[in-house]
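hey so u asked for the seq, here:
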Amino acid sequence: MIIVLKPNVSDENIKKIENIIISKGVQPHVSKGEIQTIIGMVGDTTKIDPKIIEVEPEVEKVMKVSEPYKLANRAFHPDDTVVDVAGVKIGGENLALIAGPCSVESEEQVIEIAKAAKKAGA
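ran it, structure tokens below
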């Protein structure tokens, strides 16, 4: 289940919704965007009536999600994921080219390919 809060909800009101979720025996997973906050419920939500949460004034809508991978789902996490690795941004609109074998056969193979990739400018 995913809860979409109204724009610019205060941290205090987000905590209030989180406490309601915890009281139902599931864990909240908060994703704060620039304008809107989305809270995913992680756990068995089959016995939770969405109307209990929909009546809260901070809530814009509640959506049942029956598909897998809720935490990676664009409905729950609409923003691109960008990871910073040693000052290099990977993800979103940042292009990352990764050199190497598709599988590891041996340590020697990995070292040889790493040296070749480095020599080529990777």
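Strands lie at 2-5, 27-32, 37-42, 59-63, 82-85, 88-91. The longest helix spans residues 11-23.
lmk if thats what u needed
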